């Protein structure tokens, strides 16, 4: 258990919590006293995460399935949390298509799939939890973008127009953050975004070649990749009262890889 207990008594939802950064978000929030609802399209993985989380006092952790490409699925998940806990204090929109994304496909069907999950998914999940946050006049929504949103030179001489799907979707998440912050501030709901740089998860190792990872890491001021725990620490800060005056911001956690 963390000594500070900055989220004691809070109810937090983390999407994409079956592994990687999402699992670290869930762990860090639980360490700080929150009751965590770990959600993922991989229901078994989400339940496994929930079972591993530390619990003390009144903490209760749950795992379950959500498909963020479906508003009905997001709404059902939010309704279950309200029915179980009576409130929702924080949402971390971490879930996305990443490790197995196919950059070579540029057909509309595939673009629709990626953008539906990565771009509209955070909007759907936020839409589902916002009524509960409005009714309690408080809440923290933390989106997760990527430094890929700012890396524009994908290829100088492509054979055809690339799909840009991942970077495009994450650029949109940055914009969504600001629009939501602008309309939800009156309900004491803050909306911020974390933009991780290269973060060494199993998904990254699957998506990025060792040679590319080495080159990208060497180009950063800190000369290394981020660890999932460093991304989770940023989310904890944004969910805590320490950040109650911060909204509509993009927090870059990337070792200095990009400095907008």
TrEMBL record:
Coiled coil spans: none
Say if the entry is tagged with keyword tRNA processing.
no
Name the GO terms of the biological process aspect.
fatty acid biosynthetic process
Q: Where are the transmembrane segments?
A: none
Which keywords are on file for this protein?
Answer: Oxidoreductase
> What are the protein's GO molecular function terms?
oxidoreductase activity, acting on the CH-OH group of donors, NAD or NADP as acceptor; quinone binding
Family, similarity comment? Belongs to the short-chain dehydrogenases/reductases (SDR) family.
PANTHER family (alphabetical)? 3-OXOACYL-[ACYL-CARRIER-PROTEIN] REDUCTASE (PTHR42760:SF133), SHORT-CHAIN DEHYDROGENASES/REDUCTASES FAMILY MEMBER (PTHR42760)
Q: What is this protein called?
A: Short-chain dehydrogenase
